[in-house]
Amino acid sequence: MDRLLLALVVIIGVPAATVLYAWLVEQLLARLPDRVAKGLRPWLWIAPAMVLLLSFLVYPVIRTVVLSFMNANSTTFVGLENFRYTFTDSLMLSAFRNNLVWLLIFPPVVVTIALLIAVLADRVKYEGLVKAVVFIPMAISFVAAGVIWKLMYDYQPAGRAQTGTLNAFLMGIFPDFEPVAWLINYPINNAALIVIGLWMWTGFSTVILSAGLKGIPDELLEASRIDGANEFQIFRHITFPLLSSTIAVVLTTQVISVLKIFDIIYVMTNGNFNTDVIANIMYKQLFTFHHLGRASAIATVLLLLTIPVMIFNVRRFNVQEELR
Amino acid sequence: MESTAELEKPEVVRKEQNFLGNFVRRIPLHLVLILIIILWATPTFALLVSSFRPAREIATSGWWTAFEEPSQFSLDLYRQALTRQGMGRGFMNSLFIAIPATIVPIMAAAFAAYTFSWMNFPGRVLIFIIIIGLLVVPLQMTFVPVLQAYNRLGLTGTFPGIWLAHAAYGIPFAVYLLRNFIGGLPRDLFESATLDGATHFDTFFQIVLPLTVPAIASLVIFQFMWVWNDLLVALIYLGGFPAVAPMTVVIASQVSSLGANWQVLTASAFISMALPLIVFFGLQRYFVRGILAGAVKG
Fold it and tell me: How many Cβ pairs within 8 Å bridge chains A and B?
């Protein structure tokens, strides 16, 4: 009965409440003098979004910065102690190194593969199929992906029947191949985790790049073909430059998701075997060690790392506004 | 120009040469694309095949051997998954979480995007720039203070608690995308509506919202998938409350508690994928149009 009531709230109550809010706002404004209503209206219309942003993003960010200078249970000020831990602890240093590896490899590779798929698929009739197949992993949770990739990377000692797709495949092709424990052997386990990320995220980049590709006028490409340009020249001198702002957008989104990368590591290795990353250590500090100071310091460092991207986004927005 | 020589050839000859030449030249293209399809589909296909095998078979032989003796295929794992402690409830909890957590941020963001596009107020540009800045804030920055506040207010482990958190986290992207879209609607539309005496309520619900359907559909896809698939936010605000735990949390905890017997989860994993895939394919036709309006612009 309780659950039934909940279902009603979810399906009818919540949508109705959002409409009701706008209706109440306009009813209230209609009863006020015109001048007051005109000044008040924008604030009431953005209020729901602003209240949520202020209480769940703006205020917590400021508070976390403050907490990062406090001790484990936020009772005394400890100065830079938590940051000293963040930049000297050996686990943290290993996490920084792993995040850096992710950062250097993942975004460029994801965008290159996505661009390749978008450009190639654009030339065939089954483009929709290719894009759908590449996009499907986006719809899969990291938890389900964890099960999927356990099947791919599964390892049995040499001599036993292999149950993992990758080991069995490689042994089928190269008879001398020794099975590899992909998730345990360092540093190949980091590469194995990055491959999972590529599998999951290429679809997102492909869809966006492909949408950008459709925006390039066909006449332009036809004209260069008639002028004798080959496909590589067309890509190099026309498609790529025209797509550069879209590529920048996709690159920045990937840089951000790599800095925050958590789920893949949490599900596959939980940071064991030298695969830990910043976000996973922050989670452990918060829930295993209950050290709010350290958890906040790690989060603050993450925020600092995203500031260049933030500036890039705002600049890009300003340029766009001037073009409007 | 070199190409003029080719242009002067008789039409028929050129076409035949092109057809043969094209076909041969395009073989590598098709091979690469087919390879990509195989690479991307294999992991999911392996899961699908495995989920119809008995657990002890998954643990001792590869999924590809199943085709040698098809008699082993069974629905056992699905039966287990649906009856196992917490899975059915987890599925419903995921729905109870994802539906409001998709509707609330999109509506709130649509109100805000409408305001940013068509109303004038002091601080308009500055506030919008701050929202763009918030797009990249790591969620980790917010967990400690929000959790502390939730513990005081008794919102930890409740549905409204996670609805509000997901809604807030989804708003920056939703406002950004919708403002690009709504800001691009023709100005005459609003002027004529105002002249006809329409209130902002009417204009928003009768003119703006219907025209914004493509952008909203892509947002629904993104936000629904993000909430449905989320593990981190659910672990933080609902962790340790099995009664409200979504499917991701249920499966993740079973992955660790089952340890070496994770094979029985292949069916659960496949069930958890079904709904997002239905949403995606159902709304797909709006998807590219919606994205074009937002992310790609400029």
Answer: 322
